[in-house]
C-alpha cells in the first residue's frame, strides 16, 4: 500500500499540463481499480464458504468496479465536476436495473418471513414446482421436488432452487400451513344392473373405516381456520355422490386426507373396495367402457372363386 501511495505522490509532482499526463493518470486509476477488485474477489474464496453467496458477491464487486471505471473515464474526458451528480445518477439507475431481480428476491425473502407465506418443512408449489421447503436463503428458496417426471407424491430426487421474487409474480400454494390436509376424490364406475344400495354401502363402510381419524383431526384444524380467516364452515366428513352416465353409474367419494398420504390412502381405499366388490358374488360389478352399435349399412360380400 505504501508503494502505491509513493507512486501516486510522484505522479502528482509531475507537471499537470499535457494530454499524456492526464491519459497516464486515467490508465493508472483504471489499473488500480481492476487490481483492487481482483484482490477482493480472490480473498472471498477464503472468507466466504457458501458458493452461492460468494458468486453473488463477486458479481456485485465486478459490477461496481466497472461502474467506477466508467465514472472515472467520463470525469477525465469531460473535466467538469458538475457532471458528477449526473454520472452518479445514471450509474445508480443502471445498477438498480441490473440488480432488479436480486432486489426483488431480497424483498421476497422479507415478505416470506414477515407474512409467514411458508417456512422450512412446508410442502408448497412455487413457479410451477411442487416440493418440500428444505432451505430459505436471502435470495432463493430450495425445494426437494415432488412428482416432476413421475405422477406421484414421492420425491423425484431433484433439488430445485427458485428465486424468492416469484412470491410476487404468481400464486404460492401451501399444502401444510394452517390446514395440513387436502381434499381428494376417487371415482368408481358401477355397471348398470348392480345393487346400487349395496355398492354405496361398501364405499361408505370402507371410507368410515379408513378415513375417520383424518376427519377428526381435520375438524379440529378447521375450527382454528374459522377463528383466523373469513371462511365458511366446510364438511370434512367423507361424502359420496351418485351420477348416471351413458355407460355406468358413477360413484364419487370425496374425503379429507393428510397431504403427505394422499396416494397411499387412495391405494388402500381402492384395494379394500375391490375386495368387497369381489365378495359381493356379482351383485355389484365394476363397469368398463362399452360401444353400442345401433345400426350398420348393408354389406354384400362376393365369395365367388376367381378363375
State the CATH class of the largest domain.
Answer: Alpha Beta
The shape is: elongated
Low-confidence stretches: none
Sequence of secondary-structure elements: HHHHHEEEEHEEHEEH
Radius of gyration: 35 Å
The number of distinct structural domains comes to 3
Structural class: alpha+beta
Number of strands: 8
Under the CATH scheme, the architecture of the largest domain is 2-Layer Sandwich
- Share of residues in strands: 15-25%
Characterize the largest beta sheet: strand count, sense, and whether it forms a barrel: 5 strands, antiparallel
Please tally the helical runs, counting DSSP H or I stretches of 4 or more residues: 8
Share of helical residues: 40-55%
CATH topology call of the largest domain: Alpha-Beta Plaits
Strand order of the largest sheet: 4-3-2-1-5
Overall pLDDT confidence: 79
In angstroms, what separates the terminal alpha carbons? 111 Å
Amino acid at each position: 500500500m505504501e508503494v502505491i501511495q509513493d507512486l501516486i505522490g510522484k505522479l502528482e509532482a509531475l507537471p499537470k499540463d499535457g494530454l499524456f499526463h492526464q491519459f497516464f493518470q486515467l490508465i493508472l486509476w483504471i489499473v488500480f481499480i481492476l487490481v483492487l477488485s481482483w484482490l477482493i474477489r480472490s480473498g472471498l474464496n477464503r472468507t466466504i464458504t457458501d458458493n452461492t453467496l460468494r458468486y453473488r458477491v463477486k458479481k456485485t464487486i465486478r459490477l461496481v468496479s466497472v461502474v467506477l471505471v466508467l465514472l472515472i473515464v467520463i470525469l477525465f474526458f469531460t473535466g467538469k465536476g458538475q457532471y458528477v451528480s449526473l454520472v452518479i445518477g445514471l450509474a445508480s439507475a443502471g445498477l438498480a436495473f441490473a440488480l432488479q431481480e436480486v432486489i426483488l428476491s431480497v424483498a421476497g425473502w422479507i415478505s416470506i418471513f414477515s407474512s409467514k407465506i411458508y417456512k422450512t418443512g412446508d410442502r408448497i408449489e412455487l413457479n410451477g414446482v411442487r416440493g418440500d421447503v428444505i432451505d430459505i436463503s436471502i435470495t432463493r428458496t430450495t425445494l426437494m421436488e415432488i412428482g416432476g417426471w413421475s405422477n406421484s407424491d414421492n420425491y423425484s430426487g431433484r433439488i430445485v432452487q427458485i428465486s424468492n421474487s416469484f412470491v410476487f409474480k404468481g400464486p404460492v400454494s401451501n399444502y401444510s400451513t394452517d390446514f395440513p390436509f387436502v381434499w381428494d376424490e376417487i371415482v368408481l364406475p358401477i355397471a348398470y344392473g348392480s345393487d346400487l344400495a349395496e355398492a354405496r354401502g361398501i364405499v361408505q363402510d370402507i371410507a368410515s373405516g379408513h378415513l375417520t381419524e383424518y376427519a377428526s383431526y381435520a375438524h379440529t384444524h378447521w375450527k382454528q381456520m374459522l377463528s383466523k380467516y373469513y371462511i365458511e364452515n366446510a364438511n370434512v366428513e367423507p361424502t359420496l355422490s351418485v351420477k348416471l352416465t351413458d355407460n355406468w353409474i358413477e360413484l364419487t367419494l370425496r374425503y379429507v386426507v393428510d397431504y403427505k398420504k394422499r396416494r397411499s390412502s387412495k391405494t388402500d381405499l381402492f384395494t379394500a373396495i375391490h375386495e368387497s366388490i369381489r365378495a359381493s358374488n356379482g351383485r355389484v360389478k365394476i363397469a368398463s367402457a362399452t360401444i353400442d352399435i345401433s345400426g350398420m349399412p348393408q354389406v354384400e360380400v362376393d365369395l365367388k372363386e376367381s378363375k
